[in-house]
Amino acid sequence: MSLSSYMEASTRMNERQASHIRQALENVTREVETTRTTIRKASKMQTSRTISTAGLKPSAMFFTSIIVAVSAIITLSLLIKRRKEKLLNGQLIILLNGFLDLR
Fold first, then answer.
1. Residue 64: which of 74, 50, 51, 76 has the closest Cα?
2. Which of 6, 27, 37, 98 could form a disulfide with 13 if both were Cys (CB 3.0 to 4.6 A apart)?
């Protein structure tokens, strides 16, 4: 394999990897926006529930709010973790495919 053909193969591989990474970043951005929308909807639902339960004692409302907030944080953390794992797995596959293409 000559240097020029190696450089061409390397350039093509880098372009493919860059394309895959851009696509993965677009997917993550889309998922983050979806997660934001979900959180906004959940927040609005919680607000309407809080308004409808205005007769509760303040301490009960406080603890309910804490439970809802913790649940939202856990859900968001799990979603972000799953997206990162998918992204990393995808990048690993791309790198392995690129490595195998050079052989």
1. 50
2. 98
pLDDT of residue 75: 86
In this prediction, residue 79 carries a pLDDT of 86
Q: What is the mean pLDDT of the chain?
A: 76
Residue 2 dihedral angles phi and psi, to the nearest 5°: -75, 165
pLDDT at 71: 86
Residue-range definition of the domain harbouring residue 57: 3-102
Per-residue exposure over 74-93, b if at least 16 CB sit within 10 Å of its own CB, e if not: eeeeebeeebeeebeeeeee
* Total domains present in the chain: 1
